[in-house]
Each structure stands twice: as C-alpha cells, then as structure tokens.
Amino acid sequence: MTNTITLEEASKLLTYDPKTGDFHWAVDRGGKAKAGDKAGWSSLGYTIIRIGGVNFKAHRLAWLFVHGEMPNGHLDHINRIRNDNRIKNLRIATPSQNIGNSKMPSTNSSGVKGVSWCAKAKKWIAFIAVNSRNRNLGSYETIQEAAAAYKGAAKVYFGEFAHFDRT
Prior knowledge:
3-stranded antiparallel sheet
C-alpha cells in the first residue's frame, strides 16, 4: 500500500463519526484489535491510525471520509486541539494560516503572542511570522501597545485564522 488511501479502501477498514471525530475498526485486525475497537494512538497530540504499514493522521482520514478525497496541503484544527477530529473542527489552511492559529510558543516569556521585551531599547517589540518570514511590527512603550500591533497584523495576515491568547 502507498502512503495514500482511497475512501473505498478506508471504508472497508474503518468507521468515522463526524460528530465525535472518533474512528473505530470495522473489521478484526488479526488479534491486534477487534471490530468496534477505537482505532489509533496518540503521537505529539495527533491521533495516528496505521493501515497497511502506513501511518495516517486521523484528521486527514476524517477529511477523506467526509469529502471523498485526501486534502491537498494543510488541515487546521480550529480549536487547536490536535486530537479533536470532528469535521466541524477541521478546515483547509495554508501553512501561514495554520501558524496564525497556533498557540503561543512555550518559549515566549512576555506572556503575549508576537511580543517580546528588548532590553537594549527598553521597549516592547511586536513581530509576526508570515510565509516563514518574521516581520517587525515596531517597538512600543507598553506591552498593551505591542499586543495591539500584533493583533491588528494577525487580523490582516490571517483573517479568520488569527489567534491571540496562549491556549
């Protein structure tokens, strides 16, 4: 089996509930799992399902089950929960949009996405990553001003994908 799968092939092995986002095996899996058992395991927060020696992310299989084809490119989890594979929580996204909807990096020490303190200038710096490039949004006297600059830019660059808080 290749690293792609058709809806016909997947439907012989799995069932999908679009309301819960859960997959279950439709057939016994040779002693590993029985028909009706929940399919998949967690890796880096994503649900992974192995079929024919190939690992598939469950959110991509969910898209296949509902839309009849694997998505081209990225899928975004609207609520940022990687194992929430309900179809209403999934949308096609560019890499930049997907990043726009990401949570604040754990390395951020300011507590505000897109904002850091510049000790040399003694000002707050706002920045945004768009298409894999960091863009400087300016330096500000207060963290609130820098946060507002980030939020404004995020709305422009990411639209409905813009996300501001830490979750």
